[in-house]
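Page 37, top half.
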Amino acid sequence: MRATARETGARRARIPNAVLGTAFVVLWCTGYPAAKIGLAHCAPFTLLDIRFACAGLLYAALALIARVAWPRGPQALHAVAIGTLQLALQFGGAYLAAARGVNVGILALVIGTMPIVTALMGLPFGEPIRPLQWLGFAFGFGGVVLAVGERLAPDSGAGWVAYLAVLCALLGICAGTVYQKRVGSQVDLRSGLSLQHAVATVLLLPLAAHEGWRCDASATLLTTLAWLIVVNSMGGFGLFYLLLRRGAVNQVAALFFLMPPVTALMDYVVLGDRLGALKLAGIAIAALGVYLATRPAAPAHSLSVPSAAAPRLPRARGE
């Protein structure tokens, strides 16, 4: 059995990060048009609470079937913090802002700064930013600006609460990403994500109750919820955390530069939104930025160690 487990792990390790990263971007981006559809049939916190509760139960079932260890002691507290930041604060802020009328272009532009803010947050924890990465960040953010430029409309009267929610969403995803990489990578993904989703469900429960659990229970809403739960919460977050375990925070965060351009492409396919030359240029420039920001360090660094994966965990523990 041990040999079989080792062989299975080796097969998984052979899946290139580029393949996993591409799958992650595609799955994650489907959540934006799905959220637009869902919010037309359901109040924001109600939609999130149902999504997180169902995803948490599915992750718990996977953990029980596989008989994996559950977070205990400090690990459980870390999972609570990550669930608060990465799920409740990030998605709660983003969904509230969208429901209160924040222009989607402004929302995408602010969240598009996530790789830069995350890189700055990671500096005190030994996540260096190489010059080539800074160049990649510049191209990546430039691609985001081009992709969402046509959607930057004048102030829609959303109010300061809505824009504060946007900043909370940005803080949540950035701090949660750094936190997950630093302390959350030693926990099994299934049990860890189950606990994180449970925490987010409990935190958003009073807000969903305040909304009166407002939803129309239509076939469209049920289909959208199923997509958000299985594809985004299960597939998207599973790949996100797997990529964080494999690579540096800056390299994984850089993938978020692709989110607004790829989402614009999906909106064209799913919702029929206009796809102009600026959006297409934004996709190309953002892709170039991600390529530059995720390129590995100079060969001299990789030749000094026998394995690219083995030394990462000791560095993460030894602060």
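Page 37, bottom half:
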Amino acid sequence: MPNGKLIYRQSIWTRLTHWMWAICLFFLLLSGLQIFNAHPALYLGHQSGFEFDNALLVLNPFPGWATIPSYQDLGTGRVVHFFFAWTLVGTLLVWFLASMLTRRVKDVLPGPSDLRALPADIAAHAKLRFHHTRRYNPLQKIAYSGILFVVLPLMILTGLTMSPNFNATAPWLLDLFGGRQTARTIHFGGMVLLVGFFVIHMVMILAAGPLNELRSIITGWYRTDEGDEA
């Protein structure tokens, strides 16, 4: 645990949206696996189905404990998935607007100095040497900005591409992603990236000092390294 000065690191908007994202992504993952179990195979292009033999990847259905609901119920899974998908979209908009108004969006955007410091930061993390400062380190900025500005928007767009009703409104999405089945495969890949991010995120919290990290995201207050308030 660091023993420096307590600083106010996380705004109320960051903390509220963080926990809303966590709730939304939990239900999106489990309901998404329920939907995937209806046909656990991935394709590229426009066509798929049991009569086709063009599967890119075929998986075993996910177990009941990993889906919502725990039994096969595509209709309920879709209702849960769509509800939390739109809740996630709203939460992202709230975070973005609040971050723009408070000029905190720059906190997660890596700059030239972060890229220059990246090799040293990777080496420090590999040695489990963490610096507790006011600002996010280069690896955090790259990871957070990648999730917020690349992976999550891609998940939203590919999700909309899989909707026949939305295809009538924005048919260009089908051309952008090369078909509904390609969008579904990209959507599944984005889910894998989000799960990987969550696992690494949890490991880093435990390694860097869970009490300090949790206090920061619950109360906003974060204890820095001794003599380091930068």
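Margin note: The longest strand covers residues 6-8.
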